[in-house]
Amino acid sequence: MRKSKIILSLLIISLLTSKTWAVKAATSGTDENEINTKISTQADEQAGETDTTERSLVFTPTPSSTKLNEGEEITITLELSDIKMGQDGINTFGGKLEYDENVFEKVTSDDISSQNNWSIAYNDEETAKKGTFLATINTGTSKNQVIGIIKLKVKTNLKSQDTEIKFTSLSSVAEDTVKLDDQTLKFSVTGTVVPDDDKKDDDKGGNGNDSKLDKLLKELQDLKAEREEEKKAKTILDKRNQLKSALKGKEVKNEDWINDQLELIHIDSETDVDALTERLVKSYNRFNANTPPDITPGGVGSGTEKTDDYADVVAIVKKQSHRDEKQ
Q1: Rounded to 5 degrees, what angle do the CA atoms 68, 72, 76 make?
Q2: Strand boundaries in 142-250, DSSP class E
Q3: CB-CB contact of 78 with 150 (8 Å)
Q4: Using an 8 Å Cβ cutoff, are 214 and 200 in contact?
Q5: Rounded to 5 degrees, what are φ and ψ at 48?
Q6: Other C-beta atoms within 10 Å of 99: how many?
Q7: Which of 163, 150, 142 lies closest to 205 in space, CA to CA?
Q8: Cα radius of gyration (the chain)
């Protein structure tokens, strides 16, 4: 009886021990699965963090010239560089073109050419979307490259002025959207239309220096013209005095006759004083030969009656001068 109890106790202990190991094994299996799941999740999370690095790129519009003339055409090259858009790169880029339509002709889709396998769609319709453009490429890229070229033409009949061309609402779309700052290009336009003087005086902007210069040049031109007139008047006065002295040197002693002749004849800066003196001496000699002895300057008839003028002498001088001109 005692042996039976011992055997029964051993069987119970054996059964209890096997169950304990089964529970431990089951528990150990569950922990391993959980660890494996955690490792896999961490690996996935690490892979995701590597794929979500910061996105960035640089957009550069480059004009062919910044100093423009009326009717001139310019081009603006559109370039993307320093592209950091993940493994797949960039395949979409867009923005909006803004310019002064009083300075430039309207830009149409024909004025935009795509480059390096990019395709650019441009909206030239008169809507709120006017000026927007979208550049796409089939295969994403991370290489620095020109994506397009825009052509613009300056209008005619313009005033000289400064103007700007802007690229706004710039963004790139890949796995994430990257928004860029606006880009502004500055230009100076040389026009042929001269603004009114009032507008020049009121102009406090970029053309202020030009207005002051124009005003100074005009003042110099007016001063030069005034000096030329003064010089011309002095030359004529000198020639009149030379002629008067030359006539007196030729024994023309009638002062009133000389003064009358100087009033009647035309003298300018090109007058030949010597030749004119000879002509007047001949005229004076004929005048003396044709003048009645009883007519003297300051008198009429017998010369005893005085008047305040020399009407009789002037009449004879004018008559003789007309006769000389006909000869």
Answers
A1: 75
A2: 145-153, 161-173, 177-179, 183-190
A3: yes
A4: yes
A5: -65, -40
A6: 20
A7: 163
A8: 53
d(CA 215, CA 260): 45
Q: How many CA atoms lie within 13 A of 183 on its CB side?
A: 19
- Tens-digit pLDDT string for the chain (327 aa): 555 555 555 555 555 454 443 334 334 444 444 433 333 334 344 444 555 578 889 999 999 999 999 999 999 999 999 999 888 889 999 999 999 999 999 999 999 999 999 999 999 999 999 999 999 999 989 999 999 999 999 999 999 999 999 999 999 865 678 999 999 999 999 999 987 654 555 555 555 666 788 888 888 888 888 888 888 888 888 888 888 888 888 788 788 888 888 777 788 878 888 888 888 888 888 877 766 655 544 444 444 444 444 455 455 555 555 555 555
Q: Which residues contact 224 (CB under 8 A, 6 or more apart)?
A: none
- List b or e across 169-181, with b for residues whose CB sees 16 or more CB atoms inside 10 angstroms: ebebebeeebebe
Q: Which residue has the tokens 């029964």?
A: 8
Phi, psi of 254 (to 5 degrees): -85, 100
* pTM as predicted: 0.47
Q: Is the dihedral of CA 158, 162, 167, 169 positive or negative?
A: negative
Closest CA to 313 of 248, 264, 243: 264
Q: Output the DSSP codes for 105-120.
A: PPP-GGGEEE-TT-EE
How far is the C-alpha of 116 from the C-alpha of 127, rounded, in Å? 30
Cα–Cα distance, 155 to 103 (Å, whole number): 6
Which position has the token pair 């006759």? Answer: 257
Q: Which pLDDT tens digit goes with each residue over 67-98?
A: 999 999 999 999 999 999 888 889 999 999 99
Token pair recorded at residue 56: 């960035």
**Mind listing the pLDDT tens digit for each residue in 15-59?**
545 444 333 433 444 444 443 333 333 434 444 455 557 888 999
Token pair of 287 as six digits: 């005048």
**Whether the Cβ atoms of residue 100 and residue 159 lie closer than 8 Å to each other:** no
